[in-house]
Design brief:
The complex is a heterodimer.
Chain A lengths: L5 E6 L2 E6 L4 H7 L23 E4 L6 E2 L10 E3 L3 H17 L14 H8 L16 E2 L5 E4 L8 H9 L5 E4 L6 E4 L15 H5 L5 E3 L12 E6 L8 E7 L2 E7 L11 H6 L12 E2 L7 E2 L2 H19 L4 E5 L5 H15 L4 E3 L2 H11 L16 H5 L2 E5 L3 H4 L1 H13 L3 E5 L5 H5 L2 E3 L6 H14 L13 H8 L3 H12 L4 E5 L1 H5 L3 H14 L6 E3 L6 H6 L15 E7 L8 H8 L2 E6 L4 H5 L2 E4 L8 E4 L5 E4 L12 H13 L9
Parallel strand pairs in A: 1-5, 16-17, 16-23, 18-19, 18-21, 19-20, 21-22, 23-24, 24-25
Antiparallel strand pairs in A: 1-2, 3-4, 3-5, 6-7, 7-10, 8-9, 11-12, 12-13, 14-15, 14-25, 26-27
Chain B lengths: L7 H19 L2 E6 L2 H6 L1 H14 L5 E6 L11 E5 L3 E5 L7 H10 L14 H4 L16 H6 L4 H9 L2 H11 L11 H10 L5 E7 L8 H8 L1 H15 L2 E9 L3 H16 L15 E7 L8 H8 L23 E5 H13 L1 H4 L10 E8 L5 E6 L4 H8 L9 E6 L5 E4 L9 H6 L8 E6 L4 H15 L5 H18 L5 H17 L3 H5 L2 H9 L1 H10 L14 H5 L6 H9 L3 H11 L3 H7 L3 H4 L12 H14 L15 E5 L3 H12 L3 E5 L8 H4 L8 H12 L4 E3 L7 H6 L4 E4 L5 E2 L12 E3 H9 L9 E5 L3 H12 L4 E5 L11 H9 L3 E3 L2 E9 L2 E15 L5 E5 L5 E3 L3 E4 L3 E2 L32 E3 L2 H4 L4 H19 L25 H4 L12 H6 L10 H8 L14
Parallel strand pairs in B: 1-2, 5-6, 5-8, 6-7, 9-13, 14-15, 14-17, 15-16, 17-29, 19-27, 20-21, 20-27, 21-22
Antiparallel strand pairs in B: 1-3, 3-4, 9-10, 11-12, 11-13, 18-28, 23-24, 24-25, 24-26
Helix pairs in contact in B: 7-11, 7-14, 8-9, 8-11, 10-12, 11-14, 18-19, 19-20, 20-22, 25-26, 25-29, 25-41, 26-29, 27-29, 29-41, 30-38, 34-35
Classes of the chains: A alpha/beta, B alpha/beta.
């Protein structure tokens, strides 16, 4: 793109420079000329609603908002006349008297743009009667509170929800003085299409929308903001973490711009603090007794004795190690080294290893080196796509930011969104087409779609056995005409991308993965373009490092199991419980107490995400660094140090400091 | 007939065929039923059915019953036009199904129009209009053939085949057509912008979202002349270039308009006038109707476009303007219905034709909706630049029921109020804007004295508050705040400081709002503040609503309007129950002269009587008289309790109604009161100016007696020459109520001749028992009560021919209407539009009066037309007596040494609320301060003086309110009227004595009600005082 022409303006009798296409506000900001705003927010469209940024422009009959007015070379602008300042003060009075703004009781007090302006304009009282309207407060959402009493109707939440998040949940209802921000058709937020991403909280200039987890826990100016990376799901979103007194107060997105300004409910709210009790000291269980606190020495010794005993008695391969993919790359590597080099076992896996195996099996046909991860598309390809096919997952649940990308492409760039999933799926409800086959009909359905596309003249490199329309319909339980319609939709795609996830490896359905990739190669002229939404923040890192095992480790029936859980939480159905049950001796390294720590022989406390740092590889293979945000709890050792000490004890050598 | 028109030739062939068919039809009698929305609402469908039934009943084969749209007088629907092949066009208005058989028999069969039901189409109401946009309103809007027969689509044909796009724009620019939606932006300029804007797809849009309260001009055109809009838009599309689609955004509340427009679009498509290759050219254009969903703000162009795009109808900030980024971000022209409708005629007839009417910068005609307090409600079309007064009084026929005009609200909620002082305003974009209003789309809401301007401002703010989109702060939050302040004021809780905040807020909202709605919403407030500040002050300072609208400020409108605040509903309801004595007491407590005032009052109370909204006002004055007369006849005289005597003494100068009322009030408070009167009688003008036949002396004297009985000292024949001297005599306070007894001179030659009288001197002489020497032929100059009194008195003194000369029209005469009527009954000639120029004399005596005819021209600041002499119209009337009754002023020569300031017309300057003069302890009131007014105003002044003097003597700050306390409680019935009593029923008028008896003597003319009549009349009272006071 050609460099934009420079323009010169006279603002408050001073020369100010900007680029063609800038608004007056852009130029004021770039030239350090203060203009108050409320409805304006970087990254959102300009609306000129609050009118605080009104300026006088020579030659214009009326005053105009700086935020919408396109700057031109030679304009003469005043931002600071007595009248403008009077109008601004008047408007502040109006805003304050319109609803119930009582800073004393407000979660945003001290962090409120409206309050700040009132101080700035020395608005110590309003000359108008307060209206004192009776307005509701919506607390139904798990994370957010919407207090209409403090809403100034700037529309930042509405715009961020539509333009950045693309959820389009929030909008305005009614008009004039009765205008309200509503979710959907005036549903309570908790019963609406809201995905609780919290972008609106971040966008709100007042305390009208606030977070339940952060309210009243500290103001921005009382703490410190640390830019880091959210390591939870592999979307690797940039985050700004506000800490105060070694506690996380709030997590914001690093920006609120499209396409990458989104965060999700997990990254923004669930990481602020967890209810589960932390493990503060090592724990050991004497024979036949329940587990109890011990010294590090005692715990390390018990672990060492266990490992040596089993290695001696049954050989090194009676010992297996499983690591959580929530751990950064450095930790995973050190764990693998401990297990493989020091202990000598070949039985090392990640807890999401079966997903890895399903995926690589399915991908093998499409890959030169037989692994296939390198064939994956970058996440940005979702935004550039004209047809997004989501198979066997609900990104709005598992990887909400990826879901936002899809909605964004669908709504703003008119891409087709097709969901193929047998389970309940909130993204399916928003899709242009949701194919919901029988539980076991996914594979046939996908093969049938591929066959149909092939018949429509699309050619894939690798063609599987054709599945007839009739048999696919029978297997999937879907109507033939619906399948035809879907095929037509997909056939029109030129830049189609397929996104798939947990539903497929949950069933270990490698064939289905193969089918998905086949389909992907048919919907993109330069395909296949596919992205697997992997289970955890560093799954891809763990898999690329070869920490995940090619074969099923549990088949070897290990007797001693070393679980590196870190701060991962588990459901009762998870594979890890089966592993733990099989083991005769269990070492657990975890941050929180859980049923697993109850049955362990040795428990070693692990730091949580905010207390450690390291490298994470995103879903689409990009490396990023998560920073240490909090000082670890007293007595907590870094995972790397634990491994170093274990190694040292097992090698009976002087401990060597681990090199980072 | 041809359907698809593939060339201009095809169009002309179709035109010829259509004209032939119409000519065929013109051989028959055509009955056009006007079926606009207004007609249908008025019952035109049943009229149409009645005509069909009657015509078929009489088997009239030469009658065609057709349909047409609204032609204007919407207030007089249903309207039927009958076009007779021989007798031409006649229009019937307000016809009922019952009248149809008569019309059919007399007009259709016998050929004689039923003249009494006809609309007078030659009256100024119609003759002053210039019908252009509405020229096709009398054709069938559903017939494209009829439109084509009237040269429809010729403009499109001309533009497409003979003109380049730039030439079309040039023609429109030369015509100076300005946007009829309200802002008045030059249409040609707008088109040029869009033509120059980059883009291979552009749009034209018609704004039919007419949402102003009381405005429906566009609806009539949409319903009546849809093809003109289509044609105009197609021409615009051609001129602008790259336009293939247009949209007409019409509010959904106009179902008939939407239906008609869609029908027209279908017809145009069928005829190839919309679509591809129009009239065989490369030009392609099609049109879609988009119904709006009922938001006023969607009339704003950017909101309208957002609404068409399917978004929330919020305006957005300009720039960028729709000319560059409009519908779907493409360059878009948006014009109002009337603007589009004007285009075809400009193209066919040329810019010069268009500019042949109009004001300097506002060419052509404009349609307006005349609504509100006006006789001729409906739609009009006049050249821009027509004076406002002409629209209101000549075309609109003035204000109903003789009430006084107050203001015109122009431009709807975005506009402003233009007051009576500006009736000469030329209605064009610049002149209207200069007064703080806007032209708007053409709503003219006429308001009279019964409209409260604060309430009016409140009404419009309520509208804009509810219709604001809520996007920008000033409009969303500012309008409710302004409304709150106005509400406070209408509840009597306002302060003068509120007016400053209100102004400040209004200016900010007007300056800082995002779109036209917010920018103009404060206009009703700003213009009423500018032109009617005294009404705001009345609400704030006096806690009075002069129009008796703001309920929170009063119990009943009659009581609120009475200057002395008499408890009208109280005594009327007592009379209804036959409790005459109680009623008398209720009156007497506040008014020392119930019998006199009951006879001569100009009863402002009756003007505001709510009963008038049902039928006619209650006869409040006559009811007061009967109650007081009843007590008098039964020997009952109510004397209020008097407090123990205080030391302070008060001097009152003048024993007129003001002075005696002040004395009445002060003596009851225990003050010593002396009234000094220069004349040999007490009563002031009541005694010396009002003739015996209106107010018998025995009645007045009995009432003065009642005041004196309380202990008031009266010194007759005592002229006060020095106020300071009164203080020396030991009076602590003085009330000057010397009246206005000095008659004004006309200022014509020979006024000093014998036989020329001043009306007041003449009446005074008469009332003091002398018999003024008058001749047989009398001319009285003037139109006020003194003129009538003098004229009627001369008749009784033996004059044979009496003329009242008045320079304006009879409706402008300031005298009480009943008096004017009585004078006419007695045979007095009222020569209006006449002014004397010279007294003719012979031998030092009057021999005649030279007069000149007057004509009324422009409006003066009081809203009356200014009389101008008609040159060469002089004539002489042979009279021997001339009485001049053109006005009075006070004689304040006695004040010359007392430091009390007097002002214009010799009136004493006193605070209008406290009556304090510049000299401490001296108060003044009544005619001496205000100039000539009626008795009840003097009474009120007396009450104010008493309040102020009492407070002054007690060392308290003065109050702007009349303080009333110490009244004996009298139980007032609180039964609301029954349903039967509320039903329409005319007012009872008391009877007069026989006419011959009237002329022969000074015997009282007006008879009292009988007791039965009184109770019956009193039962018409609606008891507004029982309504629960409060807002919303």
């Amino acid at each position: 793109m050609a460099e934009k022409k420079e323009i010169k303006l006279t603002i408050n009798s001073r020369e100010a420079r900007g680029k063609e296409g800038d608004t007056i506000l852009d130029i004021c900001r770039a030239n350090d000329i203060y203009v108050p705003t409320l409805c304006h927010l970087e990254g959102l469209s300009v609306v000129g609603a609050c009118r605080l940024c009104v300026v006088e422009i020579e030659g214009e009959r009326r005053i105009n908002p700086a935020c919408t007015y396109p700057a031109r070379d030679g304009l003469v602008v005043r931002t600071d006349t007595e009248q403008l300042e009077k109008y601004r003060r008047l408007m502040l009075e109006l805003i304050f008297t319109e609803r119930n703004h009582f800073c004393f009781f407000c979660a945003a007090s001290g962090d409120c743009e409206l309050q700040k302006l009132a101080y700035q304009y020395q608005m110590d009282h309003a000359r108008y009667q307060y209206t004192f309207p009776t307005l509701p407060t919506d607390t139904l959402n798990d994370f957010l509170v919407v207090d209409h009493n403090r809403c100034i109707l700037c529309g930042r939440c509405v715009r961020v929800c539509a333009e950045v998040v693309s959820s389009h949940t929030l909008s305005f209802a009614n008009r004039g003085w009765r205008t309200m921000v509503v979710a959907d058709l005036n549903q309570p937020l908790g019963e609406s299409s809201c995905i609780s991403c919290g972008a609106c909280v971040q966008a709100c200039p007042t305390g009208a929308i606030f977070s339940k987890t952060s309210a009243y826990r500290g103001r921005t100016n009382e703490g410190k903001i640390i830019r880091s990376l959210c390591s939870l799901c592999g979307m690797s979103c940039d985050i700004d973490v506000l800490i105060k007194d070694n506690n996380i107060v709030r997590i914001d997105g690093a920006n609120l711009t499209r396409p990458k300004g989104q965060l999700c409910r997990k990254g923004r709210f669930e990481q602020v603090y967890r209810e589960a009790p932390r493990i503060a000291t090592p724990l050991v269980a004497a024979e036949g007794q329940t587990i109890k606190a011990s010294s590090w020495e005692e715990a390390f010794e018990l672990a060492r004795r266990g490992i040596e005993a089993y290695r001696r008695r049954y050989g090194a391969n009676s010992i297996a190690g499983f690591a959580s993919s929530l751990c950064p790359t450095e930790t995973l590597e050190a764990f693998a080294k401990l297990m493989r080099d020091t202990i000598g076992t070949s039985l090392v896996d990640t807890l999401d290893g079966s997903a890895y195996r399903t995926l690589t099996q399915g991908m093998s046909k499409f890959s030169k080196n037989g692994q296939g991860l390198e064939t994956e598309s970058p996440l940005e390809s979702i935004l550039k796509s004209d047809c997004i096919i989501v198979v066997g997952c609900n990104p709005l649940q598992s990887h909400p930011v990826a879901g936002c990308y899809m909605l964004q492409a669908q709504i703003h760039d008119r891409a087709q969104l097709v969901v193929i999933d047998w389970q309940q799926n909130s993204l399916g409800a928003r899709a242009d087409l949701w194919l919901r086959p029988n539980e076991n009909g996914m594979g046939d359905l996908i093969s049938a779609l591929a066959s149909m596309l092939n018949r429509r003249g699309k050619r894939s490199k690798q063609t599987q056995g054709a599945v007839s329309l009739a048999s696919a319909a029978l297997a999937s339980g879907l109507d033939e005409t619906l399948l035809e319609q879907a095929a037509n939709m997909l056939a029109a795609a030129k830049k189609g991308v397929v996104v798939y996830g947990n539903g497929l490896w949950g069933k270990k359905d490698a064939a289905c993965v193969r089918g998905v990739l086949e389909l992907a190669s048919l919907v993109h002229s330069n395909g296949p373009k596919a992205i697997a939404l992997k289970p955890w923040g560093n799954s891809r890192g763990a898999w690329e490092l070869g920490i995940a095992s090619k074969d099923e480790v549990t088949d070897a029936k290990p007797k001693l199991v070393y679980l590196l859980l870190a701060d991962q939480e588990f459901g009762g159905e998870d594979f890890v419980f089966r592993v733990a049950e099989q083991a005769e001796f269990l070492i657990v390294q975890a941050s929180y107490t859980s049923p697993l720590t109850e049955v362990a022989d040795v428990v070693l406390p692990s730091p949580i995400w905010a207390e450690r740092e390291g490298t994470y590889i995103s879903v689409d293979g990009k490396a990023g660094r998560s920073k240490r945000i909090l000082e670890p709890l007293p007595g907590i050792k870094d995972d790397l140090e634990i491994f170093a000490q274990m190694t040292q004890r097992l090698q009976k050598r002087r401990p060597m400091l681990w090199k980072r | 007939m041809l359907t698809v028109l593939r060339s201009v030739k095809d169009l002309n062939t179709l035109r010829a065929e259509a004209q032939k068919q119409l000519a065929e039809r013109a051989k028959k009698i055509e009955v056009k039923v006007h079926l606009g929305s207004c007609g249908i609402a008025g019952g035109a469908k049943t009229i149409q059915e009645a005509f069909i039934k009657e015509v078929s009943h009489h088997q009239l084969s030469d009658v065609a019953i057709t349909e047409a749209a609204c032609i204007g007088p919407c207030g007089r629907e249903p309207i039927v036009t009958i076009v007779h092949p021989q007798k031409g066009r006649t229009v019937y208005a307000e016809i009922t199904p019952q009248q149809v058989p008569t019309i059919v028999e007399r007009h259709l069969i016998e050929g004689k129009a039923v003249s009494e039901w006809l609309l007078d189409v030659k009256s100024p109401e119609f003759s002053l209009q210039e019908i252009r946009v509405m020229a096709n309103q009398d054709m069938d809007p559903r017939s494209i053939e009829e439109y084509i027969a009237r040269d429809g689509y010729q403009a499109l044909a001309k533009a497409l085949t003979q003109m380049k796009p730039d030439e079309v724009i040039d023609e429109v620019s030369r015509a100076g057509l300005r946007g009829r939606g309200g802002a008045g932006f030059p249409t040609g300029t707008k088109w040029t912008f869009v033509r120059r804007a980059m883009g291979d797809e552009k749009f034209v849009v018609c704004n039919g979202d007419e949402g102003d309260p009381g405005a429906y001009m566009n609806r009539a055109v949409l319903e009546g002349n849809p093809h003109s809009i289509l044609e105009g838009m197609a021409i615009g599309a051609y001129a602008i270039g790259n336009v293939r689609r247009g949209f007409a955004y019409v509010r959904a509340e106009y179902p008939l308009a939407i239906q008609t427009l869609n029908h027209a679009i279908d017809q145009a498509r069928q005829h190839g006038l919309l679509g591809k290759n129009i009239l065989g050219t490369d030009f392609e254009f099609d049109l879609t109707v988009f119904p709006g969903a009922g938001a006023f703000v969607c009339g704003e162009e950017t909101a309208l476009l957002a609404s068409i795009e399917g978004k929330r109808g919020n305006p957005r900030q300009r720039p960028p303007f729709p000319a560059n980024k409009g519908l779907l971000d493409k360059p878009t022209t948006l014009n109002n219905v009337e603007t589009w409708s004007n285009i075809p005629k400009i193209i066919v007839k040329g810019a010069d034709w268009f500019t042949s009417v109009g004001a300097e910068k506002s060419k052509g005609t404009k349609t307006f909706c005349l609504v509100g307090k006006i006789n001729n409600t409906g739609l009009i079309e006049v050249p821009l630049g027509t004076p406002l007064g002409q629209i209101v009084f000549d075309i609109g026929g003035g204000i109903p029921d003789g009430r006084e005009f107050k203001a015109v609200q122009i431009g709807g909620p975005s506009g402003g109020c233009i007051p009576i002082a500006h009736l000469n305003t030329s209605v064009d974009y610049e002149a209207v804007t200069a007064l703080g209003a806007i032209m708007g789309s053409g709503g003219l809401i006429v308001m009279d004295e019964n409209n409260c301007m604060v309430d009016t401002a409140k009404f419009f703010l309520q509208f804009t508050r509810d219709e604001s989109c809520g996007k920008c702060t000033p409009c969303r939050a500012g309008i409710p705040k302004m409304l709150e302040i106005l509400t406070k004021i209408t509840q009597g809780k306002g302060t003068m400081g509120d007016l400053d905040i209100l102004t400040e807020l209004a200016e900010m909202v007007g300056s800082a709002s995002l779109c036209g709605l917010g920018q103009t919403a404060p206009n009703p407030v700003l213009t009423t503040l500018r032109h009617f500040r005294e009404e705001y002050e009345a609400h704030i300072i006096d806690k009075r609503c002069p129009a008796a609208v703001c309920q929170a400020l009063f119990h009943a409108p009659c009581q609120h309007t009475c200057p002395a605040e008499l408890d009208c509903p109280g005594y009327v309801s007592l009379i209804k129950e036959g409790k005459f004595i109680d009623a008398y007491k209720v009156i007497k407590q506040r008014l020392p002269f119930p019998m006199s005032v009951g006879r001569v009052c100009d009863h402002p109370c009756e003007v505001k009587c709510r009963r008038a909204q049902v039928d006619e006002a209650v006869s409040i004055r006559d009811l007061k008289r009967i109650a007081a007369d009843y007590a008098y006849e039964h020997g009952v005289q109510y004397l209020p309790p008097v407090k123990p005597r205080k030391a302070e003494r008060v001097a009152i100068v003048g024993a007129g109604p003001a002075g005696l009322t002040a004395a009445y009030e002060l003596v009851r408070e225990g003050y010593g009161v002396t009234v000094f009167e220069a004349l040999p009688v007490a009563g002031g003008m009541m005694a010396v100016a009002i003739p015996e036949y209106r107010l018998p002396k025995r009645i007045l004297n009995a009432e003065i007696e009642g005041v004196l009985k309380l202990g008031v000292e009266l010194k007759l024949n005592t002229r006060v020459n020095d106020i300071g001297d009164l203080f020396k005599q030991g009076y602590q306070a003085v009330f000057v109520s010397c009246g206005a007894h000095k008659g004004d001179k006309v200022g014509i030659p020979n006024e000093d001749k014998q036989g020329v009288f001043d009306a007041i001197d003449f009446l005074k002489e008469l009332n003091l028992g002398k018999k003024p020497q008058i001749g047989k032929k009398v001319a009285v100059v003037g139109g006020g009560n003194s003129a009538i009194d003098a004229a009627r008195s001369t008749l009784r003194l033996g004059a044979e021919e009496v003329h009242i000369l008045y320079r304006r029209e009879r409706k402008d005469m300031p005298a009480i209407i009943e008096e004017i009527e009585a004078a006419e009954d007695e045979g007095i000639h009222i020569d209006c539009l006449t002014a004397p120029t010279k007294v003719l004399s012979a031998n030092g005596k009057v021999s005649g009066l030279e007069c000149i005819r007057m004509e009324l021209k422009d409006f003066d600041t009081s809203g009356r037309r200014t009389p101008h002499p008609v040159a060469g119209s002089e004539y002489t009337i042979p009279v021997d007596t001339v009485i001049e009754a053109i006005g009075q002023r006070p004689d304040v020569s006695f004040l010359k040494d007392s430091e009390i300031k007097s002002g214009r017309g010799g009136t004493i300057i006193a605070d209008p609320r406290t009556l304090a003069t510049n000299r401490p302890g001296v108060f003044a009131g009544g005619d001496a301060v205000t100039g000539p007014k009626t008795v009840i105003w003097a009474v009120a002044a007396g009450q104010r003086a008493a309040t102020s003097i009492k407070r002054y003597l007690q060392g308290k700050p003065l109050s702007q309110f009349i303080e009333r306390n110490g009244y004996e409680p009298i139980e007032i019935p609180n039964t609301p009227p029954t349903e039967e009593e509320v039903k329409e029923r005319h007012r009872l008028h008391p009877s007069h004595i026989d006419l011959r008896e009237r002329k022969a003597s000074f015997k009282e003319v007006l008879l009292p009600f009988t007791q039965g009549e009184a109770s019956e009349e009193a039962s018409r009272c609606l008891r507004c005082d029982l309504e629960v006071a409060g807002e919303e």
